[in-house]
Amino acid sequence: MNALSKEELTTLMQRRNDWCVSMFMPTFRTGVESQQNSIRLRNIVRQAEDGLANSGLRTQEVKELLEPVQELVNNILFWRNQSDGLALFVSKDEFHYFCLPFSFDELLVITDRFHMKPLLPLLHGDERFYVLALSQNKTILYEGTSQAIKEMSVDTLPNSLAEALQTDNPERQVKFRSGKGVGQGGMMSGHGADIEDVKGNLLQYFQRIDKGLHDLLKEGNIPLILAGVEYQFPIYREANSYPFLMEEGIAGNPKGASPEQLHRDAWAIVKPYLQKAENEALSQYNQSLGTGLTSDVVQEIIPAAYHGRVGILFVAPGYQYWGIYNPGDDTVLLDEKQEPGNEDLADFAAIQTFMNGGTVFVVAPDLLPGGARMAALFRY
To answer: What pTM was estimated for this model as a whole?
Structure first.
């Protein structure tokens, strides 16, 4: 899985080139459907070839531009390590791809900048969380969304308690008794100095884990949930430096829990937290109706976003507003479909809002008055 940080998103947002190709597609990890992954990408590449040719590029230029993507089509190792969605960005000077835990709708966009709207949930951690499954032998970090959870590869994590203590045979090991499966508690066994020694060893181990997660979690806004026997939680909290560690954890030995079970337990904990910010923003929007500080009119929202007036922007998933915005006179011309020279103005509004310090939420149309596909709350 390729983690995608806000810093990388911001960098992609700022890129400008004559030909920026953005591709999004769902991917499948196993089963018959997974065999269609490479075929799906091949079809998108063919569509991109036609689109670039129709935009004026010569055949050789099209081939050179899309060559990095074409190489992935038949890369067997690449397709063995997929998540739920694949996002690819290619231009004359760069190529990026991200395997992410989001099931994207298939989409190809060719403009003078990269298309970011399908990645909007990543801007504020919407529906994204981590689960840290604590174990003396192997601590595992999972990344999850409302749809699924997947183990991440984190090279900076210690492999075990023994490694963290820099010895192959620690004199004392943590011993616990727990029920079967996630959801059961656990407790330490031992007496006096032994227990204190165990706590000290665990604290040192957890400090190493916290340090190993630092670079990955530096964005600092994605909730982290602990999974492990319950006595470990307060010890880990003592070692923790990440401000978005959730108070509630998944109690029990995670070794016997399937990813599906971990996901169910984690989503029950994190869902209210993730939806709180969105609910508060929607409430603020509804309370501001009739004050002149709200709009669901594209021709009003686009200039406002460009000039930094949009504090909160709501966009519905799966919809595009193709058109052209002229910053010189703030005119907005809408088209019925994607054509050479136009762009998705909802994507433009989202990028401008984010770059100007606003917040962007992806919400279902039925959550906005009148079923609007885009709405904004203005700062002034």
So the answer is: 0.69
